Amino acid sequence: MKGKNITFVVGAGAVENAWNPVIRAINKTDNIKTNGDGANFLFARYIYLLKFYSTVAKARKHPEMFEIMKSNIRVLKNNIAYELKKAQNSGEIKPRENFKEVIDKFVVSKVDRSYVVNTNWDNVIDLEINKLYRSNNPNTNFKIESFHIHGSIESPDELYLPSEITQEIYRTKEDEMKLGSNHASLMSILEKGNRTILYGISLDPLDAELNQTLGAGCLSPNIEEIIIINPSHELVANRVKLLLDKRYPAKITAYNPNDLRKKIEYN
């Protein structure tokens, strides 16, 4: 892969126990008991209600309900950030055991430049990548920056929840421009890359805007290969195929993270 640019996109599947703190935050916020599937169900419902009450408020009806919903979402985001920070500091959430092997095999081996795109809210991957970098370059103070497309726990109010898109009726124009710029930056990164690696990311239907951004970024003659690292790689490969344009037929290969020696081809 000499002379190639890599875009390394990581999701929750790259982090052990990634959803446990998020589920705790939802349970604490709503005084309920749910699981990962229930969390995604509730996220979609909350965003729908935020849209609905925003529309009603703009018609000058029940503005108090919109304010209540905004307040509830703000509390939820702060609880998510709190639980993730706590879990990160305690080591409850951490990189998958084979993370270094993934980095060595697909990211840093004989490439000119790598871009890290993190779809997670926590900083587990950011910290681990810099730890690995410093171990190989002990005399440098350089820090590798990850691009958090869905926001970071450092700014809870800016967390991007599942099913949200840039142009929501409840957003300010300033927020729309900032989020739109983030997605445009991701497309630019993808377009310049030769290989895109999707590690621990499923392209969930709830993340329609992310999926479209990835698809738009792959409309480039530069992209030669999309590598999927996921136990459910067949599912992800089928979704990737739906995003690609026939004019730019990138090669699709996949690996189970538990066996990185076996390559599966999907074209």
Q: How is this structure best summarized?
A:
With 267 residues, the chain is an alpha/beta fold.
Note the main attributes of this structure.
267 residues, alpha/beta, seven-stranded mixed beta sheet, two-stranded antiparallel ribbon, 47% helix, SIR2-like domain-containing protein
What is the element layout, followed by pairings?
Elements: E1 4-10, E2 15-16, H1 20-30, H2 36-58, H3 63-90, E3 94-95, H4 99-107, E4 111-118, H5 124-136, E5 146-148, H6 173-192, E6 195-199, H7 208-217, E7 225-229, H8 233-243, E8 251-256, E9 259-265
Helix pairs in contact: 1-3, 2-3, 6-7
Protein name: SIR2-like domain-containing protein
How is this structure best described in words?
By secondary structure, this protein is α/β, with parallel strands linked by helices. 47% of the residues lie in helices and 17% in strands. The chain has helices spanning 20-30, 36-58, 63-90, 99-107, 124-136, 173-192, 208-217, 233-243, and strands at residues 4-10, 15-16, 94-95, 111-118, 146-148, 195-199, 225-229, 251-256, 259-265. Helix 7 (208-217) links the parallel strand 6 and strand 7 (225-229). The radius of gyration is 19 Å and the shape is globular. This is SIR2-like domain-containing protein.
Tell me the structural class. alpha/beta
Give the strand order of the largest sheet, numbering strands 1, 2, ... along the chain.
5-4-1-6-7-8-9
Stretches with pLDDT under 50, minimum 5 residues: none
- Give the radius of gyration: 19 Å
Protein name: SIR2-like domain-containing protein
